[in-house]
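User: Please run a holo structure prediction.
Assistant: Happy to. Please share the sequence and the ligand.
User: Here you go; the ligand is L34.
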Amino acid sequence: MAAKIIKGIDIREEILSDIRKEVQEIKAEYGLVPGLTTILVGDNPASLSYVTLKVETANSLGFKEVQDSQPTDISEEDLLSLIAKYNNDPTIHGILVQLPLPEHIDEKKVLYAIDPDKDVDGFHPINIGRLMLGGSEVKFPPCTPAGIQEMIIRAGVNTDGAEVVVVGRSNIVGKPIANMLLQKDPHANATVTVVHTHTKDLASHCRRADILIVAAGVPGLVSPEWIKPGACVIDVGVNRVGEKISEKTGKKVAVLRGDVDFEEARKIAGAITPVPGGVGPMTITMLMKNTLNSLKYRLGIMQA
Ligand code: L34
């Protein structure tokens, strides 16, 4: 039986329409809208593409959006003062510094400088700590893992007692999603294994997975033989493997490929996310949700 395709772009529309409604309600009652700043340093084409999508989405929801593009050679000091400025701006509820940053800037220093109450990426140690504690402690779940969990739930895939294997141990995806799915929570309660570049036999671990989450950044890493028949496969890889001319716009666009061989994997999996149109759009959607929630925490109409 062919796999169910878990479409990030469809789930996105459902969530965004709920957010749009709530933004209007809060605006009517309090005269405030969620404010998001996206800081982009340099001109990495992938980063530019993602930030542009974030800005467009925020605008489409009626957010206040401040797009702040900075040159590659901005000093660390100047970047830190920029963050301080937005930390002190009461109309801004979310601050996002797009990663990766240029070599000369200490990423840790930058992420630690963001006010944890405006850290809609969930990368500040306080928010990572809260995520590990779980339950009502969680304030800003990081966007990609939150999107993954939402897709699993909405696809009707049971996590309770499931064998989850996460490929990759990054701070952005692997570590947080592993933590989220092992929490004592009806949408988690999984038995989680994290595998990585030093794991002895990747394939044998993957074959046990009821839910296989691949965030390695290696195009086509997971071959069909690694997939347990009927498993749910979440492909987090968005690898730029070439360029083509878009049929729609006539412009040059990147050719994207996931970490999973989609065409073969879909014959074996029970459910699978595509690339593009899978996890990527969900990442942006959950950023919008965190930014709305940041305003709701500020107004005291939501607690964490
Ligand atoms: N600070 N840096 C910070 N926060 C993040 O959450 C991110 N991430 C990752 C990179 N750096 C970050 C993103 O935003 C990855 N990421 C991201 C966001 C969106 C998409 C992919 C990755 C996305 O929308 N992908 C589309 C294709 C977009 C295109 O054509 O380029 C997709 O359908 O997969």
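The chain has a mean pLDDT of 97.
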